[in-house]
Amino acid sequence: MKVLYCTSEAAPFAATGGLAEVAGSLPQALRLRLIGCRVVLPLYEDIPQELRSTMKFVTSLSVPVAWRRQYCGVFEAHSGNVIYYLIDNQYYFKRHGLYGHYDDAERFAFFSRAVIEMLPYLDFKPDIIHCNDWQTALVPVYFSQFYANTDWFQGIKTILTIHNIQYQGKYGKEIVGDVLGFPESAMPVLEYGNCVNLLKGGIECANRVTTVSPSYAQEILDPWFAYGLEAILQERSWKISGILNGIDVTVYDPETDGDIYADYTAEDLSGKGKNKLELQKRLNLTQNAEAPLIGMVTRMVAQKGLDLVKESLDSLLQETDAQFVILGSGDWDYESFFKELQGRWPGRVSACFGYIPELSHKIYAAADLFLMPSKSEPCGLAQMIALRYGAIPVVRETGGLRDSIQDSGDGEGNGFTFLDYSADRMQEALLRALKGFRDKDGWQILIRRAMGCDFSWGRSANEYIRLYRDLIKNG
């Protein structure tokens, strides 16, 4: 079985978020299970020179972009045991930043068309093209419109994975012919809500649609979560399924992690206490092993439940001796709030801004509790990483958080959960967790149970393999 994994970002080459981690890990897990998986992504200007120097030129071709044709270079690179193809066009990709450009529709239309056009030039004909999010959602549309019935491409199937339905690729209808290169007859496929919606087109045309957790696959059928796409998703619900993401357990391993202050295992947790004291020292928190440390590593946006944190954190700090540290960046009002909070609670609160991987590892290793009160969370990786480091998650029951974290109130769970999107309910869950923290023997048992959870990519890869096989067999 051969799979081409089509993505707009992939670690270690280019990354802005969770998609890059998935695209850097899932193909590796598939290869370990003898699936012929290769990855294709754009050759961005931001890809580091040390990675560029390892690439070799494969071929060049001319790719149609509406009424014109554009140069496309194909380069090959290797990471782990996976072959990566990088699509070169300096007009579209020789600029800083992966997204947010005025011509993103054209840039990713070119990329999507190039993914298909390059295939006959390679020694690799996939059984499945697996696409991800709106940036590659045009691949199934182009394929169904122009390629599916031609001799070389017959038999290839397409899958589209939705990582976050909030981002859909919406544009004016005038781009259909002049930018995307579709005939007028294709307008019903792409049009939705009086605009062109690239994600909607991919949902229409892909043979299967997946999301990154089983709960999210059900939630996006509800208007509360679907961001306007509920009608098309309900019509196509027969082709939708959810597979929970995994994490790279080699990168996130407290026994071997070079980014943390002291290594530790579930059998010997002494290093976790050392990590806490060292992080407290670095972040100017009061060094106190007995003070419970609550951590967050997150984008500072409304979706992550930060309104609940703003509403309740002051009272929690007043009622308890807890400390709080947050790392991330995002909306100005959230960043300003946490700066102010740090000023009002010296020694108790630390706010760190930016994308700082080594510091995120140190927070996972040091934290006693890890807070994720998300309004919606398609999958979430942070709660799985937190479990790996023995930082007990406190989460709202939504999306992948519901699928990965079970409340420990029954003595068998791996965290603390709450259902209603409410500051009061979040605070109740935190207070239950802080009470549990005071029971030292019970807390040690909970940490070991958390660290024993398996969220490696192996489980998820096996589910994808079953999906691939079913699609090839049954169409």
Tell me what you see in this structure.
Helices cover 40% and strands 20% of the residues. The protein has 475 residues and is an alpha/beta fold. It folds into 2 domains: 262 residues, 3-Layer(aba) Sandwich (Rossmann fold), CATH 3.40.50.2000; 184 residues, Glycogen Phosphorylase B (Rossmann fold), CATH 3.40.50. The strands form 3 sheets. A 9-stranded mixed sheet has the order 3-4-5-2-1-6-7-11-12, with helices on both faces. The protein has a 6-stranded parallel sheet with strand order 15-14-13-16-17-18, with helices on both faces. Helix 1 crosses helix 20, helix 4 packs across helix 5 and helix 12 packs across helix 15. The chain is globular and about 70 Å long. The two termini are 15 Å apart.
Strand order of the largest sheet: 3-4-5-2-1-6-7-11-12
The average pLDDT value, as a whole number, equals 96
- The 3D shape can be described as globular
Q: Which structural class fits the helix and strand makeup?
A: alpha/beta
Which CATH class of the largest domain is shown? Answer: Alpha Beta
Low-confidence stretches: none
List how many beta strands DSSP finds.
Answer: 18
How many separate domains?
A: 2
**Number of discrete helical segments:** 20
CATH topology of the largest domain: Rossmann fold
Instruction: Please give the alpha-carbon distance between the first and last residues.
Output: 15 Å
Please identify, by name, the CATH architecture of the largest domain: 3-Layer(aba) Sandwich
User: What radius of gyration results from the CA coordinates?
Assistant: 23 Å
Helix content: 40-55%
Sheet with the most strands? 9 strands, mixed
Superfamily (CATH H level) name of the largest domain: Glycogen Phosphorylase B
Strand content: 15-25%
